[in-house]
Here is the input.
Amino acid sequence: MSMRLRGPVLVLKLAVAGLSVSAQAAHPYQYFRVGAKENVSVHPRAGYALMGGGTDQPVAFQWLCDRAEGGDFLVLRASGTDDYDPWIQGICHLNSVATLIIPSLAAARDPFVVRTIGEAAAIFISGGDQSEYIRYWAGTPVETALRRAVRRGVPMGGTSAGLAVLGQYIYSAENDLPNGPNLSSTVALANPLAHQVTIAPDLLGIPILRGVITDSHFDTRHREGRLLVFMARILASGKARHVQGIGIDEKTAVLVNADGEARVVGNGEADFYAASGNPDCKPGRPLSFGPVSERVVPTGGSFDLATWRGGGASFSLLVQKGRVSSERGGE
Here is the structure.
């Protein structure tokens, strides 16, 4: 059975197997839901699924769902569709799975949006364009609600653009051209003060990711160079004496417990970087920076974000006049 009321009203879609609700037209947001109509009260367990983009990994979503304790799973987007909802519900069998699209400052201030985030038992931030997350969510009641969710132990995850906003430091992509290429390592290394190199402050306040900046599609799009530039820019700003970076391959996720113990799942690897010092960041001049420590952890490996130690191979990197060189380090 279906019922659609046209015009500036709520659109409801009812299905025999469950409930799907879509909020349209009357509100600045969109809301879609499958499963039970009413939320349930549960006690979620904190944890963070850092996903590198590409094909989604069911094991990472199952991990988030397990921590939601059978509650209500919320997907956040600034644009897109509700295609995650039936897929996640099919994997996890939760009370409900919903997608909330927040495409404007007006939507980010809506009481329904804030309340929905406040009632979620797990939150996943989709891929897309992280500049929209910064432009529409930062400094709004959505940011406040997300920070409160972190404090009450709601498990969270993000892929691609969603991964970008999980760390304390965020490559915001605010100066990327709408239809142009993403910032490349080549461009960033040649000029670390290039217009496209934009770093935004913390959005979520996740304690174990303090001091961290992330990047996705890491091996496929050759992003090591630009992540090193992001780290250098953070140090050069004087806002931190030490910075850490995490680069995650496509089809790969790093599943992090609240205490920092993590494991790599999927098909690729995760790279963990740490650096301090005073990088040579000058306008129009290639970056010189280092040394930077790197730990490469393959699928099945583990890493501790609290101590920044783990399995895999260790390397020492040096950036000289825009070129990255590495040497195998000690274990």
